[in-house]
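Human: If only I could read backbone structure tokens as easily as an amino acid sequence. Underneath my words sits a plain record pairing an amino acid chain with its backbone structure tokens. Take your time, and here it is.
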Amino acid sequence: MKLPDPLASPKRGRPQLPKAEVRSERIVTLLTPSQRHRLTRLAESTGQTLSSVAHDLIAQGLEREENPRKKDI
């Protein structure tokens, strides 16, 4: 009896992200208790994890830096 080839079986789990979207870098930062509390409240109000909220805030800040609003003259 021949066993099925495990490499031929359908893959399970979440599909892989494109390399440009893979989050592989880690940073560590310290917060004040007040900052942690504010971040926790934001996460709870949006139904996100603390990490997800922190990531979104960093991404928004970087986006603003790359595309600053032009001030009205």
Remarks:
- The CA atoms of residues 54 and 66 lie 18 Å apart.
